[in-house]
Amino acid sequence: MNRIGRKELIIILLICGVIILFSIPFSIPYLQTLQATPERIEINGTNYTLETYLCRDFFPPSQPHGSPLWALVKVKAPGETAISSKIDATRLWVVKGTKIWETELASWEGSTKRDTLEKVGGGGPKWEPGISVDVVVRIIALKSGRSYLLKASNQYIHRTS
Fold it and tell me: Can you tell me the mean pLDDT for 115-134?
């Protein structure tokens, strides 16, 4: 019977360590943070909530099997004026079970309401329409630079055709 040398033993232990390291679900604490996000936040005395519209486009000439998921998010502060001078929404997470789609948010010029900040994110996964997911947005208070998370639970993925 052959003896395993010190060098071979170190290589085997390193390989086992790498296998163990890559099998650990790193997203669990991250997922728990997103799941624990509140659905209403207060920043400098103003209450904010989140509304969303999630959609996949199947209307020709869209991509085969439909377009990737896109999201329109509306951060609302009823009764406030010019909230876009007070906050910004910079990042989006969409959570489906243990799967997470994360993207930057871009400006959206569709809103004329002063109490609503609208942003859009695109290029998401091709999750099936007709399901519900949770949506989390990172909000930045422009005056202090402080970050907040705001969630809308059970948001429906729509289908256009």
Answer: 94
Q: Per the omega criterion (within 30 degrees of 0), is the bond before 60 cis? A: no
Judging by beta carbons within 10 Å of its beta carbon (0-12, 13-18, 19+), is residue 4 exposed, middle or buried? exposed
Q: Are 123 and 56 in contact (CB under 8 A)?
A: no
| 111/38: higher pLDDT | 38
Instruction: Spell out where 5-161 has E strands.
Output: 41-43, 46-57, 70-76, 87-96, 99-104, 106-107, 116-121, 132-141, 147-160
Q: Are 73 and 137 in contact (CB under 8 A)?
A: yes
Alpha helices by DSSP H, the chain: 6-23, 27-35
What's the whole-number average pLDDT of the chain? 86
**CATH code that applies to domain 27-160:** 2.60.40
Could you tell me if 16 and 8 are in contact, meaning their C-beta atoms sit under 8 angstroms apart? no
In whole angstroms, what is the distance from residue 86 CA to residue 21 CA? Answer: 42
Q: Could you tell me the residue ranges of all domains in the chain?
A: 27-160
- Answer for the pair 41, 142: CB distance below 8 angstroms, yes or no: no
